[in-house]
Amino acid sequence: MKNPQAKPHFADIAQDLTQAIAAGRYPVGSVLPGELELCEMYNTSRHTIRAALHELQQLGLVSRKKNAGTRVESAEPRNEFRPSLDSLEDLIQFGSSNVREVQAIETVTLDADLARGLGATRGSSWLKISSLRVDSGKQQPVGWTDVYLDSQYAEIAETVRSEPDALISTLIERRFGRRVAEIRQVVRAIAIAGPVAEMLKVQPGMPGLEIVRQYLDAAGQMFEVSVTVHPADRFAVAMRLQRSAS
Q1: Are 189 and 207 in contact (CB under 8 A)?
Q2: ∠ CA 173-102-149 to the nearest 5 degrees?
């Protein structure tokens, strides 16, 4: 932990324990220290420890039974975030015929306009991963995506390159134990700007769709934002609305 004197957030504790399990400090089959011992280790409350252990349980790393403690079940998360048919993530499905090609990875400081568009803090530092999505059959670009990650995940950059078809949120969950609990999404019509238009092989100013997604953890903290641009003639958003039972 960064500062043992400060009271950590439960997500930080979950991340620390996830890394400890992955490193073999708590091998599969062993039992984690009890709640009171963890409270002392992390200088925090029992409520915070229980929230952190719940995160580990949701990841499939541990099981918890009354009077039996918290048992390590796996060294790697088994319950990774996966889009369901009812999730916001399901609104954008590129299909198995599309390939993500990472174009650039850099650290950026958000100016006022970009911070406002992402819903982040002006002047904050983020890891930016820019990718092109290409239809492998037609060899035609179908989207450009800029993903902004909390700067503490900068070391995941090479993993993103080596696993281009994995959701970046899944890679973060697998390595750091921070799980997506909610995705907020906004879709709006835009005129595609010159640099992105060139990558998508369309005329600058052509109509397109911009889709902004904010990824939040169980505490409501945002740690990832993606901005995707699609040419209007190559992508559509479809959804089904049903009347709720009254």
Answers
A1: yes
A2: 40
Decide: residue 206, CB within 10 A, 0-12 exposed, 13-18 middle, 19+ buried.
Answer: middle
Tokens of 34: 């009890």
Per-residue confidence (pLDDT) for residue 242, from 0 to 100? 63
Q: Distance between CA atoms of 156 and 161, rounded to whole angstroms?
A: 9
Q: Which residues of the chain have pLDDT under 70?
A: 1-7, 78-98, 136-138, 237-246
CATH 1.10.10.10 in the chain, residues? 10-72
80: tokens are 């990774």
What local confidence, expressed as pLDDT, does residue 241 receive? Answer: 66
Mutual angle of helices 10-22 and 35-42, in 10-degree steps:
110
Q: Name beta bridge partners: 107.
A: 127
The pTM of the full predicted model, rounded to 2 decimals, is 0.65
Q: Identify the pLDDT of residue 126.
A: 96
pLDDT of 233 reads: 83
- Give the H or E element holding residue 244: none
What fold is seen in the domain 88-231?
Chorismate lyase (3.40.1410)
Calpha distance 221→234 (Å, rounded): 33
User: What's the distance, CA 40 to chain centroid?
Assistant: 30
3-state secondary structure of 37: helix
DSSP-assigned beta bridge partners for residue 141? 134
**Residue 243, pLDDT score:** 65
Hunting for tokens 């002392």 — which residue is that?
40
**φ and ψ at 180, to 5 degrees?**
-75, 125
Using the Cα atoms of residue 139, residue 140, residue 143 and residue 147 in order, give the sign of their dihedral: positive
CATH number of this structure's domain 10-72: 1.10.10.10
